[in-house]
Amino acid sequence: MRMLVSLYQGVFGWLDRVTNGWFLGLAARFLFAGVLFMYFWNSALLKFGDGAFGFLFLSAGAYAQILPQITEAAGYDVSQIAFFPYGIIVLLGTWGEIIIPVLIVVGLFTRAASVGFIGFVIVMSIVDVVGHGVDLLTLGALFDRHPSALIFDQRALWIFLATVLVIRGPGVFSLDWALGKAFGIHHETGISDTKSKA
After folding, report:
1. CA 110, CA 174: separation in Å to the nearest integer?
2. CB within 8 A of 88, min separation 6: which ones?
3. In angstroms, what CA-CA distances link 60 with 66, 84, 170?
4. Which secondary structure element, helix H or strand E, spans residue 159, and what is its range?
5. At what angle do helices 110-126 and 88-106 cross, to 10 degrees?
6. What transmembrane ranges does the database entry give (predicted)?
7. What is the CA radius of gyration of the chain?
8. CA 198 – CA 195 distance, rounded (Å)
9. Residue ranges per domain, the chain?
């Protein structure tokens, strides 16, 4: 029995050492890029207005998506909605859908962008529940036997993915890592730790 425990600790201790500091961040960013990036990118692009400056003058759909009750009260005429603060909220929300995912994927200011993403997902979920009145099936619940609800189940996993990046950082092959190397900031990775202990 002692030999099995020793083997177990040896194998998983080695795995922890060789992946420490680089693997989790890299894997989390890869999964974010593969699962969430295009979802948020397309969502933001659908909110842009017409023409080259559509990113500055957003569509009525952007207002309806982000501020549904206010937009409905204005009869979906966005010219009747005050730019301050409502237009700014819609503009920042739309730009956030573009900028935050890009920062996470390339690994620039990754921890701050991931905190921003967590806040974005929480606000998005509140708007879906309060503003759009999603049904209970879409809302879901934790600790039930259905793991596919759009709000509690999926978004809890999105938040966990971002939490990994907040705590562990972006890993290697990120702009944060490259800039750190360029400016002489020490990055702990499993590779360097192994070399230093050898």
Report:
1. 9
2. none
3. 10, 16, 36
4. helix 152-168
5. 140
6. 20-41, 83-110, 117-143, 155-179
7. 21
8. 5
9. 24-171
Write down how long the chain is: 198
Amino acid, single-letter form, for residue 115: V
pLDDT tens for the 198 residues of the chain, in order = 889 999 999 999 999 999 998 899 999 999 999 999 999 999 999 999 888 888 888 999 999 999 999 999 999 999 999 999 999 999 999 999 999 999 999 999 999 999 999 999 999 999 999 999 999 889 999 898 888 898 999 999 999 999 999 999 999 899 999 998 888 776 544 344 334 343
Map residue 74 onto helix, strand or coil: coil
Q: Which residue is listed with tokens 């397309």? A: 42
pTM over 0.85: yes
| Inter-residue contact 36 to 162 (CB < 8 Å) | no
Place of tokens 């990118």: 41
